[in-house]
Amino acid sequence: MSGERAPQPSWLVLARELQAISQTGLTFTRDPYDQARYHRIRTLAAEIVARHTNLDAQPIELAFGAQSGYATPKVDVRGAVFREGRLLLVREKADHGRWTLPGGWADVNESPAEAVAKEVREEAGLIVRPYKLAAIWDRARHAHEPHYLFHIWKLFFLCEIEGGEARAGPETSEVAFFAEDELPAELSVSRVLHWQLERMFLHAGRPELLTDFD
After folding, report:
1. Which of 9, 103, 115, 147 would bridge with 110, disulfide CB 3.0–4.6 Å?
2. Cβ within 8 Å of residue 156, ≥6 positions away
3. Model confidence over 86-118: pLDDT tens digits?
4. Which residue ranges in the chain fall short of pLDDT 50?
């Protein structure tokens, strides 16, 4: 597997950790003095991000404050759907028409397989059955851009088509299947990387491969 990795800025790693400490602390403490300390930690985390970006600290702190409960990574799911050896990609309206695997955030009360099947149906019009978890990757350990405020795990599933018709959805402008040597250069690198698509081709051709992780 490719060793392509992008070290996260130390300030972002620190801000994420401080935000997580604040969020978890506010979830469990009932002491008003500790609550004030955790709120201050959250403010410091927002200020760290603001000082290294063009963003204001207040909306960052509001984003941090919108999180509740024990702090854990967020989950993004992606569906690798093949037809006659070609991989399904969609153009994302939200990312200047760049290509990606269909997918998005997993929703509450959905299993991972249900989440990815729903995303493929909504973004590409196809009814699919996920049959293999090909990879679980930590977004922060790979060359995705831009960096994200929160920690994200990305789950990639191989899926087989059971019905439907390939068509764009509300969040996509185009749907197409690509051979491995025809993959588009304009990828939504916030969502997928070229070598990750190559790994999906490899998993599709070699079903005995174990799940990639980290």
Report:
1. 115
2. 77, 78, 80, 101, 133, 134, 135, 136, 137, 196, 199, 200, 212
3. 999 999 999 899 999 999 999 999 999 999 999
4. 3
Positive or negative, the CA dihedral 75, 187, 144, 66 is negative
For residue 196, count other CB atoms closer than 10 A to its CB: 25
Alpha helices in the chain (DSSP H): 10-28, 32-51, 57-65, 112-124, 194-205
Among 102, 161, 86, 154, which residue's Cα sits nearest to residue 129?
161
- Cα gap 14→80, rounded to integer Å: 33
Spatial separation of the C-alpha atoms in residues 108 and 78, rounded to whole Å: 16
C-beta of residue 155 within 8 angstroms of C-beta of residue 196: no
Q: Which residue in this structure is represented by tokens 């993004």? A: 76
- How far is it, in rounded angstroms, from Cα 140 to Cα 135? 15
**Torsion of the alpha carbons at 213, 146, 180 and 185, rounded to the nearest 10:** -170
pLDDT of residue 13: 93
